[in-house]
Design brief:
Rossmann fold, globular, six-stranded parallel β-sheet, 184 residues, 5 helices
């Protein structure tokens, strides 16, 4: 009898304001046994240093293989963390709706987050982008993926791929996540 591989723990990184209960990210978190939600003291005024410390603490509390599942500002958080930290158990990052930190619609209250094209974290990643995201053009999302050495998936016109996009459980996204996990 062979021992089975340790279960992959999904760590969810939400963006500014947190993800509502009906958001695909919250739904996935509730449906994936053992998954974790990275919490922050201030969801409305994100400071990169504080959020990185929160992620670092959350990662330290989980043993075994891990996968980051990020939305919006959570994507920049994942890659900011990966630039200066290392956890050999992190298998990859699934990054949905990466915002353009240098773009005109980037939230001014979010401080310390560098543009997505700076640095190349040593982390397999998949950037999932919409063609009509108000926080990032499809071109800036492609540039982020290229700068990070990440795979790229264009999911069409889904806005910011959030609650307002009316995705429900977003089965197409779950299929992308499953395919990404299979490649890790």
């Amino acid at each position: 009898m062979t021992a089975s591989a340790p279960l992959l723990t999904h760590l969810f990184l939400a963006g500014i304001g947190n993800s509502e209960p009906g958001h695909w990210q919250s739904r996935w978190h509730r449906s994936l046994p053992g998954s974790r939600w990275v919490e922050h003291a201030d969801w409305d005024n994100p400071d990169a240093r504080a959020w990185i410390a929160d992620l670092d603490a959350a990662l330290a509390a989980v043993t075994g293989p891990k996968l980051l599942v990020a939305h919006s500002l959570g994507c920049l958080l994942a890659m900011e963390w990966a630039r200066d930290h290392h956890d050999p158990d992190i298998k990859g990052a699934f990054l949905v709706a990466v915002p353009d930190a240098a773009g005109p619609n980037f939230p001014r209250q979010a401080v310390g987050f560098r543009p997505a094209t700076t640095g190349r974290p040593p982390l397999p990643a998949l950037v999932v982008a919409s063609t009509n995201d108000g926080y990032a053009s499809i071109e800036s999302a492609r540039a982020a993926a290229a700068a990070w050495g990440a795979d790229f998936a264009d999911v069409g016109a889904l806005g910011h791929i959030n609650l307002a996009s009316n995705l429900g459980d977003w089965p197409e996204g779950r299929a992308l996540l499953a395919a990404f996990e299979a490649r890790l």
